[in-house]
Write a structure and sequence with these properties.
Elements lengths: L8 H24 L1 H5 L6 E3 L4 E3 L4 E8 L5 E8 L6 E6 L12 E3 L4 E7 L8 E8 L4 E7 L2
Antiparallel strand pairs: 1-3, 2-3, 3-7, 4-6, 4-8, 5-7, 8-9
Length: 146
Amino acid sequence: MNLRKGISPVIATVIIVAVALAIAIAVVGWIMGIWGAVTGGTEMLKIYPDSYINAAGNYIVLHIKNEGGGTAVIYKIEVSGLDTVSSLTTSNTEITSPGTLSSVTLSAGSEIYICGSISGATPGAVYTVRVYTKAGNVYTAQIQAK
């Protein structure tokens, strides 16, 4: 007499397929960013090509848009070969005078100009600008000094 009991091979196959399908959906959702939208979204900054460094005036103007679903807090801007940008100010239109801000908050979908103090740029040179956010992201762009 056979007293061993267990689940049938058909039921075991159905369970394995269901678990594999659930894992596949979770991986695709993670890759496509579905979970980011559910948890409030993430920032995604775009630095426009009309950004520039004014070498004579010792300031930088960055035209930035947050194309993501979350708020971005920019806390540091670096220019390779120069220094960290300081004395930030923001506006909805182009500005040419640095201010007193140490960080900039950019809500989802908003677009602004950021102006900050930077010195030592050579007119005509191209510099790599790095924008750091509190979320741990770093956005880079090539900016030419005028």
